[in-house]
Each structure stands twice: as C-alpha cells, then as structure tokens.
Amino acid sequence: MPLISHSPEAGVWLLTTPHTSYALRIDETGAPGHIAWGPKLSLAEAMDLAVPPEEAQSSFEGRRAVGEELPADDGLHYGPPSLQVRHADGTRGFEWCLQGHEVLRPSPGAEELVLRFRDRLYALEVALHYRVREDTDVIERRTVLRNVGNAPFDLLRADSAAWTLPPLPAYRLSHVTGQWSAETQLHREPLAHGETVLTSRRGITSHHANPWVMVDAGDADEEHGRVWSAALAWSGSWRITAQRTPGGRAGFTAGVGHEGVLLPLGPGETFETPVCAGLFTDGGFGAATRAWHAYIRAHVLPRADEVAPVLYNSWEATGFDVDENGQKTLAKEAAALGVELFVVDDGWFGTRRSDRSGLGDWTPAPDRFPEGLGPLADHVHGLGMQFGIWVEPEMVNPDSDLYRSRPDWVLHLPGRPRTEMRNQLVLDFSRQEVADWAYGWLTRLVADHRIDFLKWDMNRAIGEAGRPGEPGGGDVLWTRYVTNLYGVLDRLRADHPGLRIETCSGGGGRVDLGVLARTDQAWTSDNTDAVDRLAIQHGFAQIYPACSMSAWVTDAPNQLTGRSVPLSFRFHVAMSGLLGIGGDLTRWTDDELTEAAGLVATYKRVRHLVQRGAMYRLGGPVGEGPTVVQYLGDGAEEALILAWQRGPRHGAPHQPVRLRGLTPGSRYRDTDTGTIHHARVLADYGLRLDLPRGDWASTLLHLVRLPEGTP
C-alpha cells in the first residue's frame, strides 16, 4: 500500500503511517483544508469525511477558526494565523492558487507530498511538505516560501504547520515549563478557551518552555487514550499557539520567531521553515513517548546506535581552578572507576580564572598547560579513556583579546548599552565571518588536541539583537543566527566523524529536535540534585529519549540544594539516562569509590536497555509511591526496572508494580538474586519492589528472559 494516495476528482490526499492516517483536501476557496488525523483510513473512507465546512452562523464569524493546513492572515480569518505576509504596497494576506503537486521518495521507506501554491496577485510561492515513513507514525511537515517577483515583501509570520484536532468532548494540554536549574516541569491542564501561547523570545529554545505539545480529551493516561502531539525542530525563538473555539474545536500552529519580528524576503529569496513533526497514538501518553523516542533515535540523532560512554566532568570538582596536574589526578581516579570519557570543563583557556574574563580567547592557558593540552590528552588516552573539553563559542567577555580587537562582533544596538549577563556578551553568529571564525578555531582545536567530545555551552540569552549598518538586520539575525549555528555544527561533524557533541545552554536551555539532529546528547540541567532530577528527567523524557539525556552523579551535600542522599540513589537516578560522574573524586572515601566502581560496572551491563530500549513509566514523581521506570529490550528478551522512594510514611500502602511488554507465558530471571518470575504474574499481579528502608531508597532490577524448556 502506498504511503501517499490521491483522488484527483475529489482533491483529497491521504497520508498513511503504520497505524494512523492524515487526510487533507483543497477546499472551495482553493485553500488546503484538513480532513482527518487519527486512526487508519482508506482513501474512500477519507473521501467520506471530506465534506465542505459549515457556513458561518453570523456575519461576525468569518472563515473557520481551525481546519486549514496553514491559515493565512486575510480579511475573514480571525484565528491565530500561520502565514502573515505584508507586501510593499501594504497589502496583506495570501490567496491560495494550487499550482501542482508531486510525490517524492527522499529515502528508502519514505515518501514526501509537496503541494505547490501561488498567490493569485503577488509573486509569492508557498510549498507545503508532508513526509511519512514506513517505520514511524510521526509525520514531518514544513513550509517553503519563495519570492518569485521583483519586489521585496515581509514575512510577519511563517509557521511550519498548523494541526487540526477532531471534535472532542474536552481538550487537555500537556507541556513543560521551568527555569534555570528547574527545567521541564510537566503540566497537564484543561486547554483554555481562546488562545494559549507557548513561546521563547530569548533566541534559544529556553529553560522556560520547550517546543512541543500533547493534547488529549482529558481521559488519557499512561496506557490508554488518544493523544495528539507535535514538536518543532528549532533552536531559536519559537511560538506554539493552541486554540480552543467556542464551537468545540481545537488546533495548534507552530513555527519560528516571536511577535514583533519580521523576515524580509527579497526577490529570488527563499525561506524554509524547520520541521514540525506530529504524532497521533491511541495508546496513551506512554505510547506517545515510546513512538517519539523511536523516531528520534531512528531519524533525528546522528548516531543513536552508538553506545554512549560513561563520562567524568571536572566542573564540580575544580570550578575554574583547572591545571594539568589536577586534571591528570582526577583522570586517574575516574579511570579506576571504569569511566570511558574524561571531560575538562571551563577554565582551561586564556585568562579564564572566573566568569569575568577570557571567553573568546580559545588557546590553552600557558601557566596551567605549559605545553598545551597535548600532554593531558595523551595521559587521558593512555588511561584508556576518550578526551573531551568544554567550549562556549557563541560568547565573549569584554575582558578578552577577542573583544578588544573586534567589539563590532557582538550583538548590540547603536547608542544603547551593551548589557552584560554573567559578565559576557553574545557574538553575532548571524554574521558569516563570526560563524567562520568559530568553525575555524573549533576544527583546529579538535584536530590538534585529538579531542573526542565537545560540551558546547551557551550561558546567556540573546538580547539587544541588532546588526548596525544592515537594513533589517535586527530581524534577519533571529533566524540566521540559528542556521549559521547549525552550519558550524554540521561542518564540525563532517570534519571529525567520530566527534561526539553535547548541547548545553546553562543546562537544558537548548534542547529540541533541531539541535539534536546535530549533536549526540543534551545536558539536561545544571541541577544535579538527584531528587530534583526525578521531576526534571520525567518531563524531559516525555519526548526526548534516554540516549540523549545526560545525567551526573555529584557530591553530597549537593552544591546547589545542600541536600544529601545516598550514593546509590544518586547513581540510580543518573543511570536512567547517560551516566556521568561530576564529583570531586579526590575527596571520596575508599568505600564510596568501591561502591561507585561497582555501580559503573552495573550500568555498563544494562546501558543498552537504557539507551535503546522502550521506556515505560510505571510510577511518576508525585504522591507517596515510588517513582518507577522500566526499559524493555528488543523482543522483550530483557527488562530493567529502576525505582526511587523519597521517604517512607508509616502505614502508607505498598502497591506492587505491574511490568509492561513482557512475553506472556515466559519466565524471567533476576540477574542479581537468581529469582525466577513468571511474566503473567509480573504483568497482571505485579512485582513487589524490594526497596531498602529509610529515606531516599532506590533499587535496580535486571530481568532476563529464560529460553523455553529451561527447568
């Protein structure tokens, strides 16, 4: 069966994924209209649903508020527009005239529908792209706009896609909010009537929101219910507007940029939006999460099949007090624990002794590394580990040689103050010469010092976004900054195919599908408190897989919160993602080092399940019960259960945990105790967790399926 089918007579297109369908048509006005998004349909069934929209009930309604594939701002559309154009004569809007369509086959197992339109009067072409694949229910959408005339015009809004939901008795919105060190806090709340705007105006994805949404009828849970969701692949400012109409319909539109910023499009110029990917599932939030994880591993992350190494990062041990001998000592301790990647954090370059100076001068500090980084890299490699380093290429301290020589390279407005945050200014990556400069020193640094890993940080938001001397530069830079950033990352990966890159922006300030297509993992939060991390990682993993989620074990009491929890609890929390260690190992006791080495070895035995397995949330980080996560391997041959209990309350009920996805009729052996469990008992009656007594208890259970006939 083709992935894309078409009825020319009815003007209906049907997109088919393994379990779902998406249908659209050209309506009576020539605009692309939505038909259905949900359970599978045949083309004939989709045509049954392709009925003209109801006429307005009064002269105050205009065009339907939701139901168009990309609602344009015209005289009779009063909902949130996905496309806003202003021509040189002041005329706005877009009149849809279909020019044709084509079905592309961009890769094996994938098909892409392209619908091409042109405005009836003005020289603007709009192409709507829809890509579907054989192995995922995720649908990728994007929009390409081209000025084919001789006059410039302004794009006031150019979203990637608008998504229409079916009529439901109620609508509930799921999304995350947060701030620095408290990112990705999950919220599920009724979708308000009117418009709900989720956005970042900071030039980065932001700690405060993340560009994805889920919508259900208010009755979905982890295992049941229909859920519609979408995620935007963009690492700059963005906006998602969800709308619920008085007439009982809902939808949302998503794209780059924020209000008050336009994009000038000159003759012959093209603007291509990032992908907005959408997913429908009828298996609840858990099925949605697993579908997103599988899609991101297969089609977003560049090397998701690679086993991520256990890393050590020196930041919390040394701060800015970085020198060759101290790092060599930490490297020796880390190697003894079984660490596979040693990362030197901030403080290794220029005059960097605090956050007040040195950013921009990316050469090893001669008083700390007299012979450069080479001897340390050799030492780390000689211990059997890979070598990584922290960089912040987009920033500069005013107290730096770079700023003194090129003060014009920072974002600034003529006559206005250059506001410092964290004692630093933002380099204008929208300028090609700045992006080329960054690429040049980065590729030399990686090559000259045999670097295997870059922790790419960005420690302030964009502000005073101006490009003096360039008309429209302050508007252009919001998108060009991000595309140039992507270009630097793409060139680095092409130069150094084995290089791993971690995206970081003061923690989770730049995490999205756009940057994950160019990096290997994300620093989830600067908050390494294992207790706080339960909620942070719970929200992160709604969309993003564990193989992209960096997590560290750090010292107790925690540097940020002052809380002390057992070493095993800290390890078990970090082991639910990409395990890292960030404590001062020179201060750990012999018992702690021995325990840590054992836990690292345990993680290595099960990390294939964490990094590649299907994740099931068996208990969330709310209420009195334990937080429980299960990872299931291919073919249900293995299962890993991680559980954390914040603290006991005498008399609190102890409910068994029902496992998911096990093969019925099979038996599973606990690799630690040798106990054999029946799959039906684990699934239907549950497993009683053997959590230690006391505060901050945790446990890890690894089950392996026994071959049939095993006594």
Automatic annotation (TrEMBL):
PROSITE patterns documented for this protein: ALPHA_GALACTOSIDASE
InterPro entries registered for this protein in UniProt: Aldolase_TIM, Alpga-gal_N_sf, Alpha-glycosidase_related, GH, Glyco_hydro_27/36_CS, Glyco_hydro_36, Glyco_hydro_36_C, Glyco_hydro_36_N
Known EC number: 3.2.1.22
Entry keyword set: Glycosidase, Hydrolase
Domain of life per record: Bacteria
Catalysed reactions, as listed in the record: Hydrolysis of terminal, non-reducing alpha-D-galactose residues in alpha-D-galactosides, including galactose oligosaccharides, galactomannans and galactolipids
UniProt entry tagged with the keyword Hydrolase: yes
SUPFAM superfamilies in UniProt: (Trans)glycosidases (SSF51445)
PANTHER family: ALPHA-GALACTOSIDASE C-RELATED, GLYCOSIDASE FAMILY 31
Protein name as annotated: Alpha-galactosidase
Organism encoding this protein: Streptomyces werraensis
